Amino acid sequence: MLEYPDSGNQELSDSLTKWVFKEEGVLRVGKVSHHKAGEKDAPQYYTIMENMVSVRPLKHTQYERFIVSAFPYYTSAFSMMGGVFLFSILFLHYRTNEETKKKSE
């Protein structure tokens, strides 16, 4: 039987297989506790009439309107828009001397 030299990928394939099948490298939550404000123990059940705090990402309207650290970005964006606007005006309305002579004749 022929024997081939080790390629060095055995350890990588073993660790990838363990990670894919969630044998290693998985974060697990051990103990979760929750309770109402002012109480120490969790109730047996919550009803829809009780106040609960939801954890969710901010909506697009809840962020700051203008971020101070982004002013260089704002400046560069508006200067580029102004440059494109001026370039398009010049490009559309510029005429060479030959074109003006031909039209005037």
From TrEMBL:
Coiled coil: none annotated. One of its GO terms (cellular component) is endoplasmic reticulum membrane. It holds the Pfam family OST48_MD. It comes from the Eukaryota. InterPro entries: DDOST_48_kDa_subunit, OST48_MD. Keywords: Membrane, Transmembrane, Transmembrane helix. GO terms for biological process: protein N-linked glycosylation via asparagine. Residues 50-94 form the OST48 middle domain. This is OST48 middle domain-containing protein. It comes from Daphnia pulex (Water flea).
